[in-house]
Amino acid sequence: MSLTVVKGLQSEIFVPVTPPPVWAPVKKELKDMTIALATAAGVHHKEQKRFNLAGDFTWRKITDKMPSDELMVSHGGYDNSDVNKDINCMFPIDRIHELAKEGFIKACAPVHAGFMGGGGNQEKFKHETGPAIAKMFVEEGVDAVILTAG
Amino acid sequence: MQRAIEAAGIPTIIIAALPPVVRQTGTPRAVAPRVPMGANAGEPHNVEMQTGIVKATLEQLVKLDTPGKVVPLPFEYVAKV
Asked: From which domain of life does this come (chain B) (predicted)?
């Protein structure tokens, strides 16, 4: 007797699938690297358009010339109180500058990226926003990127 | 996002407050200090902790040799809510 009552039965519970690995090898030493930041924490300059807190797949280019005290956060998905006190909690730009100054890394990249994670149109993120940010980093000669999210 | 940048040939590492989430979504490289969401890079105005986390993250960027690993970092910040 077969123990299978219904063939091909699937769970009705949504189970997220982990995608296949992606890997770009590190080719330089840290002291020769230009490092950029990308954050899903909703960081942008205070003159830039705020993110739509209900879900937003757009992103903001943060140039390295923007003073860190002129950056702000608009994000509806986490407690903003720490990052409102100190942007470096999610966007450690001052720390990267210090590490570049002391020679731990070669330089801080001229551009960084802020977007609002934790929701929004995932297809747009995957096929438009992600590649657009990646393209900017390639064009600006970035060697590695630190992300904050999750 | 991390995967898109990595697919363009630039190595990346993510500082995560929720390690199971980044593992599930297929991170190539990740570190996880003991921090709450919203302070992934450390306590506000704690320059020493933030520098420590960023430095340790960069060291893991170079050190990690296989995708999908999430390395715990020995830093802890508990937000006073």
From this structure: Bacteria
Spatial CB neighbours of A116, under 8 Å, sequence gap ≥ 6:
A40, A41, A42, A51, A52, A53, A55, A56, A74, A75, A76, A77
- ipTM confidence: 0.96
Q: How many CB atoms lie within 10 A of CB A126?
A: 15
- Is the CB of B10 inside 8 Å of chain A's CB atoms? yes
What pTM value is reported for the model? Answer: 0.92
Size of interface A-B (CB pairs under 8 A): 184
The residue ranges of every structural domain in chain A are 30-148
Q: State which residue of chain A sits closest to B30, comparing Cα positions.
A: A147
Instruction: Give A 96-115 residues with CB within 8 A of chain B.
Output: 96, 98-99, 104-105, 115
Do A82 and B3 lie within an 8 Å CB cutoff? no
Identify which of A81, A92, A137 has the shortest CB distance to residue B5: A137
